[in-house]
């Protein structure tokens, strides 16, 4: 845990006692703050009380006595309207901050020079974050991985010299971190997302810009107009910018030429690394992720050879285009994190012959947007509530069966892929749906897929998994 010493002996209010909020409350108490916490969920309040954290309805507080108000990132700050607790804080002139801001203050106070890489963007954040952490860890560096990737940042080890932090940041977290100042900040891309929480695309982009604007080195993907303008603007303001692209040559920075990551400098380009043969980094989207990871690692002192070694041994992000097993000519790929059609597209575009397991709780739009990729699908195995609608969309374009459940889909897809006999066959779970009709979350769905694959005869598992374990 990182005790929050910057608010020691000061009165602090906190709202939101879910996963990261409860960790934040603990860290504030550990640092000596006088904390009053609350949540709209009585169960969350009871959990905090059981740990000795003082709770009370924040509407009863004297806000003039507070030094700070800490808000959990899932609670509305601006749109569709501010949470009532935010209104109270603003009326009293109390700063509203989040756990990322508390971390950067602790870093400045105790180890301002310890390397800190922060990653944001609409797509690819988690893979890029995991890849950077893997490169650093495999090179022997003391690496702390957290943030929006699933580990609350204040649950990490405290800042100290030569301890590297790799932190995924959502727009919600950046909005609550006014002094965010990474050693290397990454903005991968921007497409419309979370507009219910930010109001407009421009406001969403402005929030994302803050992460790279405060960086010593800003790594910015320039494949969309918003990010291109941001790169130009912060460079004019004096920030060192490294541009990356997955489809265009850049004058200075890194860009993808197929599977090759090229380095452009002073008008000339040279090969930096080739991703060909790294199964966990297939596809143009992963070329962008890899380019960003490479640029950030080089910015914090990692050598090219260390980067190459880390790329080659990257096991992939769990549940995201993750090769999990192999039987003869067939590879099994877990892409359970693909909970809508747009998220499934990268996986479908990365393989030529796919036995596709899809379905679950359908999202608006279904899978019609994937029709340009139907030629990659040898056969589809449809599960869950979406199965009838997906079958109607596939029509005569793709052979399919309604398998109903994941165990049947794995069994049938594996048998068909094996019987086909061609090299390069892939059995892939990339559901293009939420999991909630049959599973609590996509992680449990992905783990179930892995267990069904492991139960097949003759499968060699590519990840740590013991049959029956």
UniProtKB/TrEMBL annotation:
Coiled coil segments of this chain: none
Annotated GO biological process: cell division; cell wall organization; peptidoglycan biosynthetic process; regulation of cell shape
Organism per entry: Agrobacterium bohemicum
Main location per the UniProt record: cytoplasm
Pathway: Cell wall biogenesis; peptidoglycan biosynthesis
Mur ligase C-terminal domain residues: 319-433
Protein family per UniProt: Belongs to the MurCDEF family.
UniProt keyword annotation of Transit peptide present: no
UniProt keyword terms in alphabetical order: ATP-binding, Cell cycle, Cell division, Cell shape, Cell wall biogenesis/degradation, Cytoplasm, Ligase, Nucleotide-binding, Peptidoglycan synthesis
InterPro entries per UniProt: Folylpolyglutamate_synth_CS, Mur-like_cat_sf, Mur_ligase_C, Mur_ligase_C_dom_sf, Mur_ligase_cen, MurD
Entry GO terms, CC: cytoplasm
Reactions performed catalytically: UDP-N-acetyl-alpha-D-muramoyl-L-alanine + D-glutamate + ATP = UDP-N-acetyl-alpha-D-muramoyl-L-alanyl-D-glutamate + ADP + phosphate + H(+)
Protein name: UDP-N-acetylmuramoylalanine--D-glutamate ligase
Protein EC: 6.3.2.9
Compartments, as annotated in UniProt: Cytoplasm
Gene: murD
Chain's role: Cell wall formation. Catalyzes the addition of glutamate to the nucleotide precursor UDP-N-acetylmuramoyl-L-alanine (UMA).
Top-level division of the source organism's lineage: Bacteria
Binding site for ATP: 121-127
One of the record's GO molecular function terms: UDP-N-acetylmuramoylalanine-D-glutamate ligase activity
Domain Mur ligase central: residue ranges: 119-297
């Amino acid at each position: 845990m990182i005790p929050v010493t910057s608010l020691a002996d000061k009165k602090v209010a906190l709202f939101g006692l879910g996963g990261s909020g409860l960790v934040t409350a603990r860290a504030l108490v550990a640092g000596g703050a006088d904390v009053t916490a609350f949540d709209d969920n009585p169960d969350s309040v009871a959990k905090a009380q059981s740990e000795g954290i003082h709770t009370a309805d924040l509407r009863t507080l004297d806000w003039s006595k507070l030094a700070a108000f800490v808000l959990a990132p899932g609670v509305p700050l601006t749109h569709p309207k501010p949470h009532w607790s935010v209104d109270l804080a603003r009326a009293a002139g109390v700063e509203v901050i989040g756990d990322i801001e508390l971390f950067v203050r602790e870093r400045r106070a105790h180890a301002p020079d310890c390397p800190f890489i922060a990653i944001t963007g609409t797509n690819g954040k988690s893979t890029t974050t995991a890849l950077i952490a893997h490169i650093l860890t495999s090179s022997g560096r003391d690496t702390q991985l957290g943030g929006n990737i699933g580990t609350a940042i204040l649950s990490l080890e405290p800042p100290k010299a030569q301890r590297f932090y790799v932190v995924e940041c959502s727009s919600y977290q950046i909005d609550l971190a006014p002094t965010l100042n990474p050693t290397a900040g990454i903005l991968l891309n921007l497409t419309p997302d979370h507009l219910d929480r930010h109001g407009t695309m421009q406001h969403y982009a402005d929030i994302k810009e803050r992460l790279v604007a405060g960086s010593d080195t800003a790594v910015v993907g320039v494949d969309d107009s918003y990010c291109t303008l941001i790169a130009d603007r912060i460079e004019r303001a004096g920030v060192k910018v490294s541009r990356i692209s997955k489809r265009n040559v850049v004058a200075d920075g890194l860009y993808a030429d197929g599977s090759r990551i090229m380095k452009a400098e002073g008008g000339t380009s040279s090969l930096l690394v080739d991703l060909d043969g790294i199964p966990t980094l297939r596809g143009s989207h992963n070329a962008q992720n890899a380019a960003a990871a490479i640029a950030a690692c080089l910015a914090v002192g990692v050598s090219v050879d260390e980067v190459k070694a880390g790329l080659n041994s990257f096991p992939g992000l769990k549940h995201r285009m993750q090769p999990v097993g192999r039987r003869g000519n067939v590879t099994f790929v877990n892409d359970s994190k693909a909970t809508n059609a747009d998220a499934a597209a990268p996986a479908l575009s990365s393989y030529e012959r796919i036995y596709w397991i899809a379905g679950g709780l359908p999202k608006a739009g279904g899978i019609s947007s994937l029709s340009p990729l139907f030629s990659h699908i040898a056969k589809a195995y449809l599960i869950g509530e979406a199965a009838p609608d997906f079958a109607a969309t596939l029509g005569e374009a793709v052979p399919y069966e309604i398998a109903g459940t994941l165990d049947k889909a794995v069994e049938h897809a594996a048998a068909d892929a094996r019987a086909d006999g061609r090299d390069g066959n892939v059995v892939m779970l990339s559901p293009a749906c939420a999991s909630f009709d049959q599973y609590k979350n996509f992680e449990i769905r992905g783990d179930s897929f892995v267990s069904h694959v492991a139960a097949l005869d003759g499968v060699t598992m590519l990840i740590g998994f013991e049959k029956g374990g």
